[in-house]
Design goal:
homodimer; alpha+beta; Arc Repressor Mutant, subunit A; DNA-binding
Chain lengths: 100, 100
DNA sequence: ATGCATGCTTACCTGGAGGTGGGTACCGCA
DNA sequence: TGCGGTACCCACCTCCAGGTAAGCATGCAT
């Protein structure tokens, strides 16, 4: 469920408060609209976030995290942390050529 | 890198100590040989584990975690923890029909 | 010669995540 | 009449992780 390319990143954007579709779309530079719609739909379906349609014109729809959704954030945190450590490791490991 | 279906599970099996190919293969009931070889190769390439070929006949090859590999385990832990919480949530959410 | 066990390797195939490009319905504005 | 902005939907395509099935090289036992 969290294994997709974007799910955790979408959830992460919502930590600071609810966001509209367009805002999310702009905050995730390389996602496509279709995929964002898809992700939001299945995250809402899994009850990790909630969709609120304000029924206005022009349309206004907001997404916010559920408590359950917040439980997914440690996964992102752990992944990010590992990413940092791994990057450091790469940096430290590369320059072996010019040691001698 | 850790996004594959098996990488974290392979690493997890190695926490208790080095294992041979066949042992890993038996411990991961649903993985295919090809995919296990693949995973091991790319995890070794990423320096998350080390491959030791004992040069014997019949072949004996052992895999063990590197310190860097251990840094990936929190990702699995966080994911597993979320899995538990999510399962609980499902259990708690389902029986709404028979409340009234 | 045959079979067994080990640790792979190769060739092939498939499902589905993810990307592209278009369309929809609504309203205000000019 | 057309344009812009919102939040989508649809048809189509590509790519590759992952799965299946078979082969390889070696030595020992039979």
């Amino acid at each position: 469920m969290l294994g997709g390319k974007w799910s955790l990143l979408v959830l992460n954007q919502l930590v600071g408060g609810p966001l509209r579709f367009g805002e999310l779309y702009r905050l995730l530079p390389d996602i496509s609209e279709k995929v964002l719609v898809q992700e939001l739909k299945q995250l809402a379906n899994a009850e990790l976030l909630v969709r609120t349609n304000h029924g206005e014109v022009p349309p206004r729809v907001e997404y916010h995290l559920t408590p359950l959704g917040r439980q997914a954030l440690p996964v992102l945190a752990a992944t990010a942390e590992f990413g940092r450590i791994y990057a450091e490791h790469i940096q430290a490991g590369r320059p072996q050529q010019s040691i001698g």
